[in-house]
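so i finally got all the pieces together for this one. its four components total, 1364 residues if u count the protein bits. some of the lines might not be protein, just check the labels. i wanna see the whole assembly predicted at once instead of chain by chain like last time, that was a mess tbh
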Amino acid sequence: MIKAGIIGGAGYTGLELVRLLLMHPEVEISVVTSRRYKGKKISDVNPHLEPFIELEYEDVDTKEIADRSDIVFLAVPHGSAMDYVPELMAKGTRVIDLSADYRLKKEEYERIYKRQHKDKDKEKRKSVYGLTELHPEVADADLIANPGCYPTGAILAVAPLVKGNEGGGRVKQVVFDSKSGISGAGAEPSDKSHFPNLAENIVPYEVTAHRHVAEMRMELSVKVSFTPHVIPSIRGILTTAHVFIEESGAKTQDEIEETYKRFYEGKRFIRLRKGLPSLSSVRGTNFCDIGFEIEEESDRIVVISAIDNLVKGGSGQAIQNMNLMFGMDEREGLWFPGLVP
Amino acid sequence: MIKAGIIGGAGYTGLELVRLLLMHPEVEISVVTSRRYKGKKISDVNPHLEPFIELEYEDVDTKEIADRSDIVFLAVPHGSAMDYVPELMAKGTRVIDLSADYRLKKEEYERIYKRQHKDKDKEKRKSVYGLTELHPEVADADLIANPGCYPTGAILAVAPLVKGNEGGGRVKQVVFDSKSGISGAGAEPSDKSHFPNLAENIVPYEVTAHRHVAEMRMELSVKVSFTPHVIPSIRGILTTAHVFIEESGAKTQDEIEETYKRFYEGKRFIRLRKGLPSLSSVRGTNFCDIGFEIEEESDRIVVISAIDNLVKGGSGQAIQNMNLMFGMDEREGLWFPGLVP
Amino acid sequence: MIKAGIIGGAGYTGLELVRLLLMHPEVEISVVTSRRYKGKKISDVNPHLEPFIELEYEDVDTKEIADRSDIVFLAVPHGSAMDYVPELMAKGTRVIDLSADYRLKKEEYERIYKRQHKDKDKEKRKSVYGLTELHPEVADADLIANPGCYPTGAILAVAPLVKGNEGGGRVKQVVFDSKSGISGAGAEPSDKSHFPNLAENIVPYEVTAHRHVAEMRMELSVKVSFTPHVIPSIRGILTTAHVFIEESGAKTQDEIEETYKRFYEGKRFIRLRKGLPSLSSVRGTNFCDIGFEIEEESDRIVVISAIDNLVKGGSGQAIQNMNLMFGMDEREGLWFPGLVP
Amino acid sequence: MIKAGIIGGAGYTGLELVRLLLMHPEVEISVVTSRRYKGKKISDVNPHLEPFIELEYEDVDTKEIADRSDIVFLAVPHGSAMDYVPELMAKGTRVIDLSADYRLKKEEYERIYKRQHKDKDKEKRKSVYGLTELHPEVADADLIANPGCYPTGAILAVAPLVKGNEGGGRVKQVVFDSKSGISGAGAEPSDKSHFPNLAENIVPYEVTAHRHVAEMRMELSVKVSFTPHVIPSIRGILTTAHVFIEESGAKTQDEIEETYKRFYEGKRFIRLRKGLPSLSSVRGTNFCDIGFEIEEESDRIVVISAIDNLVKGGSGQAIQNMNLMFGMDEREGLWFPGLVP
């Protein structure tokens, strides 16, 4: 059994790790931390976990956690993960960081997140960007930078067009218009998550300058814009990718389908759809559903992707990465259909 | 492997059986019928099931289904189940009927459902009312009448008070005020399920004469009233039981807690809560969460129960019954925490 | 034009007063206070009010407000209103208090709200409980204690049965099971109003001991219990009144209809429904919709009432009271149909 | 008083006309038709209209309706309006058609709507496209083609950039990504409007070929693409306009603000926002709220518009047009703030 520790187990990302790891046949949760709830039974704070976990929340003691864990998931805010990584790795523990701290190059990180990177060995650590379908090298990594929720759905939607053999160089620009459930904003109540503010509404925010665009640009190497919105749903991100193609790049429905099939061959969590995906089919799952339409007499292809932001867009993908790091099938513990209706 | 057939696999109850049985380690789904979709791949009609099931929907051929199945689940409308039961049982196949056809005594059924019972051996069949926690004899049954969704939550809420040792005879009256998600009304669009009619609303219906009250009266043998409402949620039934106690029956918090604990000892899907339950903790699960408060200077105890109407209130409970019928642990295939948030 | 001041204009109750008074043909808003937003344009803080109001939020200066207002609405928390009332009334300004401070007798208030009443002339002031339909004396009042949201819907639902000529003494007990939109919990984000906690859920709270029960008992003088729940809606309270009748009190559908019609004759905001009401028809309006069903072979009548908690359950009723205090038709400024769908 | 008739008064558009015209001080509703409900009291079918309207639904008798009305609103499906227009206009009655029948040139209409236009005088009639803010000539029109809901929000969002003095010719392409409440799909239940299908979901549809794009292209004369989605809300359309500017067209925040202000000067239902609009502020109103952000180092400007699809996107705009046709202030009967929260 793999012993897995979770630092930051009271937020939505941490709790989703707990929920999913509890069902994983090869994993035993060794420790879950929460400064706020230390000493309390996890299932008292989160009654849906009763009686599946006996552990109490603990305070953070990095060294001890390293000793008790084969792998540690960091489900802490941006800027905090880099406090733990050096010590954990020094003890030989593998790490999957769900924050942004190891996703971007140092200078890019500091520019985008407006803070200094405190890990002096940041660049040496060879962290792998854990978008599993594009980065098979996660299997050999000791440190995974788990992707942001928006970039996961966005990059997966268009990677075959941008990076597939025939698509190379033919995509001139992509605009991602994303719609997210509010759980992406976290477990803390705020004006944004206040029910009367969100119900019967849809709220655009950071429509030209959301930090996640940096990951999309890093991975796609093409002109990318990104505009997020919050919708009155708990889970899910639907990304509408408006892809603009060079004139010489016009392709048929069949050719594009073929491109996607080839690109994602063997990737079990990608489901290419005949129609257009929506959030309900992926609720609670690690799937990324993808569909597209070609606009007639236009340079535009519309690709839609749907993920559960807390699973494929976060904790599920982290476990998918863990599976590969430990030589297991990527589906282990994650292979179930969504909660429909 | 147990071979399980599902007659009526396109409605919500049938689909939930499919979803749950696909995750059951000891079951293989042998056949799923749908007159409307016969010949179509189940996962084409229900994309969330891709790629978990290869079967196509079939037309109903009762005999053949009996041959191919160790157990058959009937997820058909009231009045239809009794068309299949005689033939299935004649072939020695066990049956779990999720309709109302075998829940009540013949005369009571005919009075409440306003139709004649067509199975001439109805009373001989010894169907067991499949409220597992109250009826351990499900383990020996060949025909289970799976309870209605409302009765499941209602009866479980108050059974210990009504039937527990100390409680016997002291409850004088119960009013169940239930609030249900709309999935209980089925997969067919209707005025009731039309989003603009239900969102930002709550709709009381059949507030004095819902048919499910007959099951509650049968099981509780006490004066029972029942008033259901539909709330703007997909899943779940929260039942607020207003329990009126004889003056001589006054009890303390501790005594009542003790009564519940004793009554439900070893029943793994009952979770007694310190506070009051709500729907979110049981979403997607087979749990029934129960909590209560005693009103001061009054004859009233308020007991709240929460279930997922499609799982504990339907398909999950059916599988729990199947588990016991086949000598397995009741938790097999059903032991996972809810989808929170 | 009546000059109306609002103390506490940033919460939902205060904002609803602003919204409604802006449409009132005989009223001019003279001052709106908010400690938090003083100096800011009201329509900058609340963009839906642009360009209907030019005023800025002001700090509270009770004397000055009295000078500038013919009537002052107190939309402040319980315990604060009594700080303003003495000074406002000393200056001859009429007051409608939307808090609980003047609803109950002193000792009852202090017992229920667990605080001392600071207004030494509390009992002398002859405040009128502003449930307009039951208290025509609001027309002559200088101080109105505007009812709580739950009591408004609950009391109106059953008053004809309890207090109507034929009904007198025949109701033995009432249980109010109420379902409220979350706006009743106020404009401040909290765990309760956090979208992922409330969506797809329904949350019972204070199920035996909510403070509002005191108002219901005061007005109805019959055995009353009360159990509230929050539903995933912004506005509205649906109250399901389970009314238990003495055996000798059995009545027919027609008799009860007649009782209601007679009791509410001329009360323009009460709509007696043939079927059962739901929240959507009253959304944004001052109506209280009422319907009922008699349970066969039982002592129970189920009466359902539906109100908009912020209008009839709060600010609308306050304006209805103001209309009568100033000799106007009760409908002035409030006579419009609901926002359907 | 203006006598207004409504043909098609049982759908959402017709009912919204009724609701709004009932509050209009200069209008008397003369007749409302519904084949389905003829002979029934309008307020029996729609209880939220009780007691505001005494009329019954009538069958359609075009000539008689013309006699009894100064203006007739056609709230009928596409393809039906052209059956009524010739006869109504022959009788001298003015017409506002809320269907698509008179919005486009004949050939364009027949191509897009895949049916023949039956009005042989279609092109002679000089119908005016009733997007009031862009077409002051509505004031002199006898036949108004009221715009589609999506085009209203989309065109208003970008018209100043495309058609404003400085903007002329500098916009090279616009992609409208729209999110609509489900009431746009009508009052008839369907799979799309089925609560379990829409709640916790967002559904893209006709993402490259929705018919409404034809109106956008007609009015904007620039390269336009359009992708709609349905969100789990009753009302509202939020349109995210991704506007691509020629390099030479780069402008500052102030310049663009100035362009919008100048373009919409005196247009009382356009509210230019400092931040980004969302649906809640326009709920139930005739406003179109607009805000924008310029993406740094890019050719993209993001403009967001928010409307209530049934008011500014339909019936409210129709009344705004009527106001101008009859020489009134455009605000008459429509000047009130939104229902917030």
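The two ends of chain B are 34 Å apart (CA to CA).
The CA atoms of residues 125 and 143 of chain B lie 7 Å apart.
anyway lmk what u think
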